[in-house]
Amino acid sequence: MSLQLSTRGSVNLQYDDRKYSLKGIWVWAHFPGPRIKLCPSEPSTTWDHRYIAFSGPLVAQWQGEGLFPFQAPQRMPSSGRDYIGLFDELLYRVKRPAGWGHWRAVNLLERLLLELAQARRENSTQLPWLRKVFEAIAENREFSPDYAAIAHAAGMTLRTLRGRFRQATGVPIHAYVLQSRMAKARLLLGETDHPIKDIAERLGYEDIFFFTKQFKKHTGITPAVYRKSRFG
């Protein structure tokens, strides 16, 4: 699996029979399955781009959570963030010796994938029903949201909600809820000094040991190690 970033020039990208002409700062994934072709887009004769390849258990998890732009290339969000600088820092960290440098690279890659996924979802909220679902999930304080009630509020059956949500976002609704919870956990662990027990309770976990187990399952490391990798 690899993530590609085009920074200058124009490039034609093709996944099997799907063709895209990209100009500016774009990101896309190379992954097993489709036949992928790249060539300069006239009048350009060249283009600049960076890429990073990766493998391991976290990749399958990130794929399952819909963090990769599989469906099509994605223009980098115009949020003012220096994504080229972030990508370059990621490449720098990858070349560092194993240890904390490795986990910092993992954190940077995951942060980039999360921000890209969030941008895709914000674009999806142009769908009124999907915006209502996102709002209901964000307002829910229970560990397991009442999906039937969320579906009813959106004017559809639970079965229809599950199908339409996955079609619009690329992930099942429960995976999105869990992904959002883990993203919030990473944010609180990395940007606050709140005790891990307090963070777990804030996210709806009554058992800190279950929170630690679930966090490790989704990130590969415990909350304590994740926090140390951010500040260590």
Care to describe what's here?
By secondary structure, this protein is α+β, with helices and mostly antiparallel strands. It has a domain of 123 residues: Jelly Rolls (Sandwich), CATH 2.60.120. Helix content is 53%, strand content 17%. It contains ten helices and six strands; from the N terminus they run E-E-E-E-E-H-E-H-H-H-H-H-H-H-H-H. Strands 1, 2, 3, 4, 5 and 6 form a six-stranded antiparallel beta sheet that branches. The longest helix is centred in the middle third of the chain and has 25 residues. It starts with a strand and ends with a helix.
Quick structural overview:
This protein has 232 residues and is of the alpha+beta class. It contains 10 helices and 6 strands.
**CATH class wording of one domain:** Mainly Beta
Q: What proportion of the residues form beta strands (DSSP E)? A: 15-25%
Kindly report the name of the CATH homologous superfamily of one domain: Regulatory protein AraC
Order of helices and strands: EEEEEHEHHHHHHHHH
The count of helical stretches stands at 10
Question: What is the residue-mean pLDDT, rounded to a whole number?
Answer: 82
SSE class: alpha+beta
Give the key terms.
10 helices, alpha+beta, Jelly Rolls, globular, 232 residues
